[in-house]
Amino acid sequence: MPSVPSTIAPLRFSSAELPERARGRAIRALREQGLLPIEPLRDRTVQVRVTKWFLPGASVLSGTLGGIRQDGDPRARDAGDDLFFAVNLAGRSVVTQGRREATLHTGDAILLSDVGGPFTLIRPARVRFIGVRVSRRAVASLMMGSDTAAMRLIPRGSHAVGIMARYVGAVLDAGVPISTEVSCAIATHLHDLIALSAGATRDGAAMAQARGMRAARLEAIKDDIRSNLLDETLSVTALAARHGVTPRYVHKLFEDEGVTYTQFVVQRRLDRALPMLRDPRFSARRISDIAYDVGFGDLSYFNRVFRRRYGATPSEIRECRAALSRPDQVQGAEIRGR
After folding, report:
1. Distance (Å, whole) CA 55 – CA 21
2. What is the mean pLDDT of each run of 10 residues along the chain (338 residues)?
């Protein structure tokens, strides 16, 4: 029996790394291998920069495409009795399936099915997008209407679509390998978000809100915090307002993970401060400056939480690094260790 990998890594491809004359050939090779069902458009500038994840229960393609035709290809590695959910984050795409055609503008999304027949997305100019393929059976029980084969257009403004976009950006766009266990959870969350975006039943919506939507909101909030750590006035009130929830809801999301909002923010700031104290390039900077640089507004508070977390003061961490960097100190340490 083949072993199950402990981690999953994405496929990453960029046409910018290739000479222009070689791009079409490289893209067709990926299509023939069943990895990326895309084809260059004639007389168009080809732009491809994508990350593709093959997760247990879902595959996710995100990035930018331009001068490209993307097909629901039956030869694709992840094809089958599946649903394809596409989100146009920026740009314009034209979707055709059978006799139906739809134009996606910035913020629009669409749900397509292999059962409905072959489909094509044309992206003449650069489009930033997310495409998620999932098993039809995995989401059909959550969705309203028994006909999941019909094309469904979701106009921009859908809250669930926005949450999905932020979730994929926070969890998968970095391209860092993830554990198989985590990837299964991500796939389940994507099932929930697709159902909420395309129209969930009452019971399906309740389940998806408690599971996928909750997880996606938490990841989006964490990503927002990481992006604004240097703002010492970062408040839960402003954060909640940006994500359309209450401050109490934000606190509850973190408490359910066994950590408070404040603890999460402080730890992320300490995670930035520690490498700076150990890095010789920052040896000329005062510890107070480093504390302020990572978002602490009070030096005594920084020293206190730093020592509580690492068992040493910032000064002791810096002195230890400085001592080890001096040859005489290193030699003395080696002699004492014999």
Report:
1. 33
2. 65 89 88 89 91 92 94 58 92 93 96 86 95 90 70 91 91 81 92 92 90 91 90 87 90 92 94 92 91 93 94 90 52 39
Tokens of 223: 């990503």
326: tokens are: 């001096």
DSSP string for 47-99: EEEEEEEEETTEEEEEEEEESEEEE--TTSTT-SSEEEEEEEEES-EEEEETT
Yes or no: say if 320 and 280 are a contact pair by the CB < 8 Å rule: no
Please give the pLDDT value at position 331. Answer: 42
Walk me through the domains of the chain, giving residue ranges and CATH numbers.
7-226 (2.60.120.10), 228-338 (1.10.10.60)
User: Per the structure block, which two tokens stand in for 239?
Assistant: 């954060």
The answer to whether the CB of 277 falls within 8 A of the CB of 314 is: yes
